[in-house]
Amino acid sequence: MRTKITQHIAIIIAMGFLFNFQSYAQENDAENYRIRFGLSTKKQPDNSRVLEASFIGTHKKDRKDRVPVYNADINFYNVTEDGDLLLGTVKTDQEGTAQLTMPGNQKYITNEEGYINFKAVFDGTDDLDGEESELAVKDILMELNLEVIDSVKTVIINAFTLDSINTKIPVEDAAIKVAIGGYLSNMPIQEGTIEGGEFQFKFPENISGDKNGNIVVIASILDSDEFGNVVQKKNINWGVNKKIEIESHKLWSSAAPIWMYIVLSILLIGVWANYVYSIINLMNIRKEGKELDLKIKK
């Protein structure tokens, strides 16, 4: 009887395990994920252009569950009226992104309004449907000039596009951000709008630089519907070099705050008090041991 009961319990446990496994597999099936396929572009300081496709699967219920699509072939095109011109093919990395960098002298075909039409395409596999994303931007030329005008440090940004006969057309109403490059993040110093192809402002004082006073000034147009992302930067010796005098080989220094003296003193007193307490206890133990030996001998 016990054997049959044991067999029934084992069967129930096995069925439960199988059911949970099937539920888990169904929950993590590709059908439960919404594919997000996007295309963005960034023009770099050397005038090269980066085309980036993002290929991510997001769980329909748990949106925090994001799965990058790895090792997928992404084709990048310059879309024209006569057909799609292949610019290159790149595989997605472990983050689900594929980046194609085009040189600064690359010639693109534009439409009548002067926009370059880009397209990223994933042809699909047996498990994943094909995906594509398009993006249209104007090719902007941005110049960052750092000049001293009447003894005033001045940041001057010029931006323009070129028409079909290479005539410069000043950029209008483009949001611009200027920052100082840092190790962990950039420090914003000015925001504004490019009008008539120009934006300028007085460089702020007391900006810390490296040991030689060098800083990196970065001008950015971000997430523009017309131009995408555009970055320009330049190195210059406009930073303040702050030297800190350090008294070496000294435990006590006039530069240290009072609370540091107090904490250090308490710690040192505590350590030495522990040494003294331990030595006294050892001496007492030794003394009691001798007295115990004398009692035993008697």
From TrEMBL:
Query: Signal sequence span per UniProt?
Result: 1-25
**Its domain of life?**
Bacteria
Report keywords, A-Z: Membrane, Signal, Transmembrane, Transmembrane helix
Q: Which residues cross the membrane?
A: 258-277
Its protein name is DUF916 domain-containing protein
